[in-house]
Structures are given as structure tokens and as C-alpha cells.
Automatic annotation (TrEMBL):
It comes from the Bacteria. This is Glycosyl hydrolase 109 C-terminal domain-containing protein. InterPro entries: Glyco_hydro_109_C (IPR049303). Residues 2-96 form the Glycosyl hydrolase 109 C-terminal domain. It comes from Cohnella silvisoli.
Length: 194
């Protein structure tokens, strides 16, 4: 990752919640008590000019979705379902169906392609992992870490990757404090950081 820019909305949801539940005189119901906004958006740029958009929103009044992902490439795209009753969708250029009337591209359920494209780790652990937090993501991260220790190998995500991803929060706050200014992400693997 090369740089990021972050923006935060006003803080309204928590103030409103405390006002409704504890009265307008409660300190947390007063304007200015909450410093963080309801929603934050961070745009990350990688060295290879890939754009990553992150949105964090823990306080807005709406159903929470911990596993909403979108992936867009040149040959396909993926959109996760917004709730458990909605399908994850996928589109593949020159492979997904089209409407007969006008040839419009169509999304289709991801499950149509899962036997072909599921990752070997998901094939091994998916049934169990799906019953854990964040759609199985937490389980798979821990499973990889433990496997690396047991197999005496370098983990897929090393300490430098972890520090880089962890720095996104702090660098985002710096960008917000500077009015959305672009902030460079340090290269923690370089000699100056060891």
C-alpha cells in the first residue's frame, strides 16, 4: 500500500441514542461529546495503482453487515449479499449469462461457481469456519497462524503485513485531522523500520 485518504461523517447516532434512552441532559446526549463520526471512508492506493475502498460504520441505525465485500476486476466482479437471505453475486466476462432481449450482462449466484473456485482451505474448513465470526474470516486467519507455527514456516501474513494493515487506522485519523489530506503509508519492511 502506498497512500490513503480518509473522511468521516458527523457524529449523530450515539448522541441520539443516549438522548432517547437516558435523556437529553445525559453528557453523552450533548453536542460535542462524541469525537468520532458515525461513518468513515478510507481510499487506499497501492504501488500497482489498485484502489481499495474501506467503509467503517459501527453506530448508524441500520442492520449491521460484518461481511459486505465488493471486488471489481477487468474480467469479473463480486458483490456479497447484504444479509443472510441474499445471495452473494458474481459476474464473469464472456461467461456469465446475458438477457436475450438486449444482451445486457447479468449477475448470477456465486454458489454456481463455488465447486470450481473455492479455495482449498475453504474446502477443508469452510463448513466449520462458516459457523464462526465474520463469515469464517476470523477462523481462517487463526488457522493459518497456528498452521504456520505447527509447520515451522513463515505465515501468509507476516508481522510487517500486520503492522501495515494496523497502521491504516492511525494514518486515517491523521488524514481526517488534516482535512482529508493524502497520507503516505510507511514501508515497514525497509531497513529504517527494523
Amino acid at each position: 500500500m502506498k497512500s490513503l485518504t480518509a473522511f468521516v461523517s458527523k457524529s449523530r447516532s450515539l448522541q441520539q441514542y443516549f438522548g432517547e434512552h437516558y435523556g437529553k441532559d445525559h453528557p453523552a446526549a450533548r453536542t460535542g461529546f462524541w469525537r468520532q463520526g458515525d461513518s468513515a471512508t478510507v481510499m487506499l492506493q497501492t504501488e500497482q495503482e489498485v484502489l481499495i475502498s474501506l467503509r467503517v460504520d459501527w453506530t448508524s441505525v441500520r442492520p449491521h453487515n460484518k461481511t459486505h465485500y465488493v471486488l471489481q476486476g477487468t474480467e469479473g466482479a463480486y458483490v456479497s449479499g447484504r444479509h443472510p437471505q441474499e445471495d452473494d453475486l458474481i459476474w464473469f466476462k464472456n461467461r456469465s449469462p446475458k438477457l436475450e432481449e438486449d444482451g445486457s450482462e447479468l449477475w448470477e449466484p456465486l454458489r454456481n461457481y463455488q465447486p470450481e473456485f473455492d479455495h482449498p482451505r475453504w474446502k477443508q474448513w469452510g463448513k466449520f469456519a462458516a459457523e464462526t465470526k465474520h463469515g469464517g474470516g476470523d477462523f481462517l486467519v487463526l488457522e493459518e497462524f497456528i498452521s504456520a507455527i505447527q509447520e515451522d514456516r513463515v505465515p501468509a501474513v507476516d508481522v510487517y503485513d500486520a503492522v501495515t494493515w494496523s497502521s491504516v487506522f492511525f494514518l486515517s485519523m491523521e488524514s481526517v485531522e488534516r482535512g482529508g489530506q493524502t497520507i503516505s503509508i510507511p514501508d515497514f519492511k525497509s531497513k529504517g523500520w527494523r
